[in-house]
Amino acid sequence: GAVVSQHPSRVICKSGTSVKIECRSLDFQATTMFWYRQFPKQSLMLMATSNEGSKATYEQGVEKDKFLINHASLTLSTLTVTSAHPEDSSFYICSARDQGAGLEKLFFGSGTQLSVL
Amino acid sequence: DAKTTQPPSMDCAEGRAANLPCNHSTISGNEYVYWYRQIHSQGPQYIIHGLKNNETNEMASLIITEDRKSSTLILPHATLRDTAVYYCIVRPDNSGYALNFGKGTSLLVTP
What we know:
The complex is a heterodimer of chains A (117) and B (111). In chain A, the strands form 2 sheets. In chain A, strands 2, 4, 5, 6, 9, 10 and 11 form a 7-stranded mixed β-sheet that branches. Chain A has strands at 4-7, 10-13, 19-25, 32-38, 45-51, 57-58, 67-73, 76-81, 90-98, 105-108, 112-116. Chain A is globular, with a radius of gyration of 14 Å. In chain A, a hairpin with a 6-residue loop joins β9 and β10 (105-108). Chain A has 117 residues and is mainly beta. Chain B is mainly beta and 111 residues long. Helix content of chain B is 0%, strand content 47%. Chain B has no helices and 9 strands. Chain B has strands at residues 9-13, 18-23, 31-38, 45-50, 55-56, 61-64, 70-75, 84-92, 105-110. Chain B is globular.
């Protein structure tokens, strides 16, 4: 199946610093990617939809100036958590659509565990 | 998206079939039923999806009732590695929409 690579898998940072998470589709082109956040023992919550070459669409309650999304190519989307605070500590997961062969599946990265001290 | 209802947790003995139910009584005609699973600290993994007919692949079988108001995911021979949270999601296909995850069913496969 299609592979979505997410990096880094784990990051620890100091409060006030920014962290960038990369999401790459390795064997397909992804015009649309999605970013999720998951707190412990909770389900995945959609943060934003990232479309190649245009501005991301954020879900209600997600600060666009805090969670910067860039989708400059068909295989790469990045999420930057700016001025991170301890409450931003969470598991961040990206997902990409593989429209090849008429399939409308979404494939997920392996996630990034962010810990803000 | 139509909402789904799943039991919060289930147990299954290793080697037995695991049957995970899902209710989606408000599903629309153009919405597919998707199943994903998430093993601890990993990203969700696609399992199977279907519209109205039963589906089978190398991972599982999906049984959808004739009225499409419920479905069952069947793992024919559960292994310890199948321990995960299983999510049933309904969503229009070819729509570009994200998957909206509910709470899912936490399946524990025991030796």
